[in-house]
Automatic annotation (TrEMBL):
The chain crosses the membrane at residues 185-209. Shows a remarkable charge distribution with the N-terminus being highly negatively charged, and the cytoplasmic C-terminus positively charged. The gene is LOC115968053. Pfam families: TRAP_alpha (PF03896). InterPro entries: TRAP_alpha. GO terms for cellular component: endoplasmic reticulum membrane. TRAP proteins are part of a complex whose function is to bind calcium to the ER membrane and thereby regulate the retention of ER resident proteins. May be involved in the recycling of the translocation apparatus after completion of the translocation process or may function as a membrane-bound chaperone facilitating folding of translocated proteins. Residues 1-25 form the signal peptide. Belongs to the TRAP-alpha family. It is found in: Endoplasmic reticulum membrane. Keywords: Calcium, Endoplasmic reticulum, Membrane, Signal, Transmembrane, Transmembrane helix. It comes from Quercus lobata (Valley oak). This is Translocon-associated protein subunit alpha. The lineage of its organism: Eukaryota, Viridiplantae, Streptophyta, Embryophyta, Tracheophyta. Heterotetramer of TRAP-alpha, TRAP-beta, TRAP-delta and TRAP-gamma. It is a single-pass type I membrane protein.
Length: 258
């Protein structure tokens, strides 16, 4: 059972990579439909934020409905504050009834506590979006975080709301981290930290090398020690110096000592 669920998730991810922002559906209702190409739904009836109000209630997911999310051309999930970001929501309906997709919504939370909501993002509604039984579909969702949001790491929670036989359900298609960066920022928070750490290590290494060089130069400047032994006098030298001022000074010194 677990292997089958993992296969479904992998299949949905593959579907999203191949799909365009327009929803595509493929029905298994007959043999001809399975052999044909995916049916393109030309008009999903996207209506922006003018959607049915379901309040703050939370609905359970419907059996047989699986969802997955992909950030096209943005695998790093870098969200520029104040600018629009697009993601794709894939849905696979293994149930027996048609799924009527109503809306997609999302919110931004602090990563350490989801009860602390940072921003409630826009809700995107659909008037004409269905997923027949045994079919798959891809839906685009465009959102933008506030341009005043402080750069950093946050958690994004995305939910797709749908109906089956007029009963509301919802699936959380994404519940993970995103990194918000300032407009025009070329480096992420992690990149800035790594660059700062590298500079600090280089400075410490330079200080250590400088200290080693100074210690080495001090050792080379020290004068070598000279050992002083017992003085010896060469007899031939004394004879050669007889009668000079040197021998007279030695004689005077010897008399003083006595």
């Amino acid at each position: 059972m677990l292997a089958m669920k993992n296969f479904r998730v992998f299949f949905l991810a593959l579907l999203l990579l191949l799909a365009s922002p327009v929803a595509r559906c493929q029905s298994d209702s007959d043999a001809e439909g399975r052999e044909a190409a995916e049916e393109v739904v030309a008009d999903l009836g996207i209506v922006g934020e003018d959607v049915q109000d379901f309040g703050d209630g939370s609905f359970s997911p419907a059996p047989g409905v699986d969802t997955v999310c992909v950030f096209p051309k943005n695998s790093a999930r870098l969200i520029t504050a104040g600018e629009e970001t697009e993601l794709l929501v894939g849905m696979k309906n293994d149930g027996e009834a048609t799924v009527n997709v109503i809306a997609i919504k999302a919110s931004v939370h602090l990563p350490f506590d989801h009860r602390l909501q940072v921003q409630n993002l826009s809700t995107q509604g659909f008037n004409n979006a269905t997923v027949p039984a045994s079919a798959q579909a891809t839906f685009p969702y465009i959102f933008a975080v506030s341009k005043f949001l402080q750069p950093g790491t946050f958690d994004l929670v995305g939910t797709i709301i749908y109906e089956i036989d007029q009963n509301p359900y919802q699936n959380t298609f994404y519940n993970g981290t995103i990194e918000v960066v300032e407009a025009g920022a070329f480096l992420s928070i992690e990149s800035v930290f790594l660059v700062t750490l590298a500079i600090a290590l280089l400075v410490l290494l330079g200080i250590w090398i400088r200290g080693q060089i100074q210690n080495l130069s001090k050792k080379t400047k020290r004068a070598p020690k000279v050992e002083v032994g017992t003085k010896t006098t060469d007899a031939s030298l004394d004879e050669w110096l007889q009668g000079t001022a040197y021998t007279q000074s030695l004689a005077n010194k010897s008399k003083k000592k006595k």
